[in-house]
Design brief:
4 strands; WH-like_DNA-bd_sf; Arc Repressor Mutant, subunit A; transcription regulation; Lrp/AsnC family leucine-responsive transcriptional regulator; DNA-binding; Tscrpt_reg_AsnC-like; single chain; Alpha-Beta Plaits
Length: 147
């Protein structure tokens, strides 16, 4: 499915506020509510729209630390880690990457002690490097048309 200009306008509206009504989106992009609904359904079916989410503040939910942890897996430990990482509640995002490390994770932790115990669980699988996140520079930036 190609994403035409109107679909991009609808996607922009949804990325800015997925809770707005189809009628409101229609007013913003200049089409009827049923037309918006039909286009959204087609984009969902095509996998362009993959879901709708509430973004929860980890800090307001009681987590004091957010960190980026990279892992360079030991020989033979990458596949076991890829299964294990799915069980960690601390992991918000996990990416398998190219380069010296195999994995990049974005994690939330209660405090430094929690960070220490979490790293202790990871070092069975490989070498880790940890960076503490101080603040977001760009957060949930929207996907835009390719020029």
């Amino acid at each position: 499915m190609s994403i035409d200009t109107l679909n991009w306008k609808i996607l922009t509206c949804l990325q800015n506020n997925a809770r707005q009504s189809n009628a409101e989106i229609g007013r913003q992009v200049g089409v009827s509510s049923p037309a918006v609904s039909e286009r959204i359904k087609k984009m969902e079916d095509a996998g362009i729209i993959q879901g709708y989410h509430a973004f929860v503040s980890p800090f307001e939910a009681g987590y004091q630390l957010k960190a980026i942890i990279t892992l360079r897996a030991f020989m033979g430990m990458l596949k076991p880690f890829l299964e294990k990482v799915k069980t960690y509640d601390e992991v918000l995002n996990c990416y398998r990457i190219t380069g010296n490390e195999n994995i990049v994770m974005e994690v939330v932790l209660k405090n430094q002690k929690h960070l220490e115990s979490f790293i202790d669980q990871l070092i069975v699988y490989g070498e880790t490097k940890t960076q503490i996140v101080l603040s977001h520079v760009i957060k949930y930036n929207e996907v835009r048309p390719i020029n």
